[in-house]
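Minutes, methods subgroup
Present: GH (chair), OT, SY

1. OT presented the first of two proteins processed in the latest run. Sequence and structure tokens recorded below as shown on screen.
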Amino acid sequence: MKAGNVREKYDMVCSGLDELLKKHGYERQGLYYRAVEPNNDTIVLFCHFGVECVMLSHLLNISPMLLWHGFCAAPSSITSIYTEERRKGIASFRVSEFGSTAHLYAAGEEPSFAARFCECYDNPDERHD
């Protein structure tokens, strides 16, 4: 992790995300966001799984390691997040779907196995560590 400058890259992604959210009325303050100009804007981002996990970890205040090692989002999957302003002026982020491939099934497409590792080690055609 240290050799790969992960912390530096993590901070870069989080900083960029906070800049984007600020333009939409949400300013980071410690572990939460101030709803300076609350709205119903929809923001669409396209990225790879690793960056997705960084952004989710920042928004949810959890370690990205939990997401990187315990979750899987296939290529072209959809993750939906929304804000909740349960208390005036304080916005929280919530994930309503993670890694959904329902749109692929609806179009008759099989989701990619690319994001996964073998289910059983003896499966020769599936990706190993």
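2. SY then presented the second protein from the same run.
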Amino acid sequence: MTTFGFLLKSMFRRKLLVTLSMLSLTTAFLLFILLRSVAVLFSGVVADVSDVRMQTSSKYAIIFLLPHRYGEEIASVDGVLDVTHASWFGGAFKEGDDSAMTFAVDPTTYFEVYDDYLISSEHLSAFVELRTAAVAPEAIMERYDLEVGQKVPVTSPIFPTSNGEPWTFDLVGTYRSKNESEADFLPFLFHFEYLKEAAGVSDVGWYTFTIDDPEQSAEIAQIIDSKFENTSDATKTMTESQAFRDFFAQMGDISLMMNGIIGAVFFTMLLLTANTMIHSYRQRIPDLAVLKTLGFSNAKVARFMLIESLLFCTTSAAVGIGFATLALHGIGPFLPSGFVLTVTGPTLIWGAFIAVGLGLVIGLVPAISASRLVIVNALHTR
């Protein structure tokens, strides 16, 4: 029998107890991956947002609109390059689904500011020229089975039509981002002029602009906000990456809550798994004495116990992480646009670190006890 086979046979000596314990630990790692994915999303570190773009919105909340003239004043600030604007539309492509981000934008300037968005010249020209035009990212095209050239009905609780019917947009093109991590965060875009004429809205939701020196972002933000400080429409300016984090922070410190739950889960699993390993050790004291009688050294017996503990934890972790990855892939299509749960590299590293650390901690006491075991006393316990 190989050493690995011996360890497996020893670990599953009490099959039901060990199997149930492994299922519990597997569930713990499954929850770890799921909760950490939520925590990563709400900490705003999934999307790799450029720091050369900044955003100016209402000081109080993004739902408050800003005067259209603010765009010209922002453009006059030294260091500011291109300026565009967008407004949250809250669109729903089918009944009961309001999960897709939908923005009313200025087509002429939007793709100048977002120069990392790729759109064909044909689609961009159609977007600029047609008042009812819209373009959609590839993710939304696939999710709602849309095709270029079709008319897309969209309802909005923020801007309902006077007759209660959906808005209708002409889907003239599609676009994508150079940065693959942004693929699921891209919005459905339509012509602001259509919103302005149909809903009588002249103000905009927020301004986005590029700057020539990211190191001057704090100074530029202060200059812009000071321009509107004493008006009824005070502003808050920050880098787009910070604005992304603040958007999720409005929903509460989800990241802190998820990490707290993870800590509670693993503390419980630590106690449960440690109890299982200690109980298993006590049941095998006579067997360990026999091994020592056959010539196994104290260090080798201790090493067996420690490796068995590591095997128990790492196997459970691998299965749990595998199931969690499949679960995230399965629920992805049902999440709102922009809510992308992924298993990041740091999460996997933390999972491996926890599995190994847990194995060492719960295996240490049985390993030390096994190394100090006196053969005569151990055989007497049979």
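Chair's summary of item 2: The longest strand covers residues 167-177.
Next meeting: continue with the remaining queue.
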